[in-house]
């Protein structure tokens, strides 16, 4: 091999590595993957059919404007199609927000722990990550986040329900926080797990978006819709920010199959099927959390499709304990372990494994 004398950006040496959920080993043992917050259901039949049909045109570039999909999403969210900004998952939309808003040395505030990609996206584009510790109940400390705002703050990321810990923000909490944020600072409310929230208590983020010119909402098709492998997410943004996101996003990021699948998922019949799946996952989460509480576990209140075990330095041992019994979970260093609400059999195994750990 020839010598490599290229120079990469110095900022890369300080970036943490993104760690994907560990796959289940193929060793003959019955194993379940509960490490990536994926849907336990495959895409609905109509979505699969739409993807297959779309492959007939895979030799053509997709509609870069994704006009049909953006029109449908605009109607769903009662905004203009131009206010929908698409990219390859909500994580990519978050990266677009950083590129559109953050100059070198500008600050981006987010809770920690929260979504693992946040510090990578911010640091890789020259921004300064400002990580505000969660409370002792693993919730956003909005008072501390408001106090962290400086003249260099350009973006605040609020993940609700928070990944990986699970708690969510209420309408009242968001209203009080937004009242403290300067109107030139964008507050992006990352709602990747919104569909799993108790519908009766979910925050009124659509209203907050209409009332605040600096609020953007982030959504994804990766979770409930079962399209993680197709990579599609979007922002709902006010016109000036939406235009800026369109300027910096990767061209043709929303592929032909992904656009077709997303459109099919918005069909009334398919949407009803997805609502039933969301209700099933919420029910399973309640069943699992109740069983764990009976074992003596005191876990954060989760509104996502996962539960979080704040095990601290015991996290690695618990991960190994679960893995040896056929369940792959997601570890977060010496902080904790996240378990996705997956197939019923996987959820049963989680309860059994957690009970064995405590005895």
From TrEMBL:
Where in the numbering of this chain does the Aminotransferase class I/classII large domain appear? 35-315
The record's PANTHER family line, in alphabetical order, gives: HISTIDINOL-PHOSPHATE AMINOTRANSFERASE, HISTIDINOL-PHOSPHATE AMINOTRANSFERASE 2
* Keywords, alphabetical: Aminotransferase, Pyridoxal phosphate, Transferase
The protein depicted here goes by the name: Histidinol-phosphate transaminase
Q: What class of enzyme is it?
A: transferase
Q: Which GO terms describe its molecular function?
A: histidinol-phosphate transaminase activity; pyridoxal phosphate binding
Enzyme Commission code(s) on record:
2.6.1.9
Q: Which InterPro entries match?
A: Aminotransferase_I/II_large, ArAT, HistidinolP_aminotransfase, PyrdxlP-dep_Trfase, PyrdxlP-dep_Trfase_major, PyrdxlP-dep_Trfase_small
| Pfam families named in the record | Aminotran_1_2 (PF00155)
């Amino acid at each position: 091999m020839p010598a490599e004398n290229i120079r990469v950006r110095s900022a890369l040496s300080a970036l943490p590595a993104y760690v994907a959920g560990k796959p289940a080993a193929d060793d003959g043992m019955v194993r379940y993957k509960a490490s990536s917050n994926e849907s336990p259901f495959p895409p609905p039949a109509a979505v699969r059919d739409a993807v297959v049909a779309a492959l007939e045109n895979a030799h053509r570039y997709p509609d870069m404007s994704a006009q049909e999909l953006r029109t449908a999403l605009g109607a769903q969210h009662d905004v203009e199609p131009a206010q929908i900004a698409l990219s390859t998952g909500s994580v990519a939309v978050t990266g677009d927000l950083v590129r559109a808003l953050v100059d070198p040395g500008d600050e981006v505030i987010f809770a920690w722990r929260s979504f693992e990609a946040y510090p990578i996206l911010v640091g890789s584009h020259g921004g300064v990550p400002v990580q505000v510790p969660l409370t002792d109940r693993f919730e956003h400390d909005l008072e501390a986040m408001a106090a962290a705002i400086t003249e260099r703050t350009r973006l605040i990321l609020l993940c609700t329900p928070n990944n990986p810990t699970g708690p969510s923000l209420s309408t009242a909490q968001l209203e009080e926080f937004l009242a403290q944020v300067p109107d030139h600072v964008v507050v992006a409310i990352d709602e990747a797990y919104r569909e799993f929230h108790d519908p009766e208590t979910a925050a009124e983020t659509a209203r907050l978006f209409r009332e605040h010119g600096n609020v953007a909402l982030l959504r994804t098709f990766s979770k409930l819709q079962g399209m993680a492998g197709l990579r599609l997410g979007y922002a709902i943004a006010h016109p000036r920010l939406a235009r800026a996101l369109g300027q910096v996003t990767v061209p043709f990021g929303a592929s032909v199959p992904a656009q077709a699948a997303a459109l099919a998922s918005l069909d009334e019949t398919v949407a009803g099927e997805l609502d039933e799946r969301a209700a099933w996952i919420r029910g399973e989460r309640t069943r699992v959390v109740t069983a764990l509480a009976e074992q003596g576990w005191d876990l954060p209140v989760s509104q996502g499709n996962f539960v979080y075990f704040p095990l601290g330095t015991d996290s690695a041992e618990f991960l190994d304990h679960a893995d040896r019994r056929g369940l792959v979970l997601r570890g977060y260093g010496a902080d904790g372990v996240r378990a996705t609400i997956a197939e019923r059999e996987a959820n049963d195994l989680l309860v059994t494994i957690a009970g064995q750990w405590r005895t």
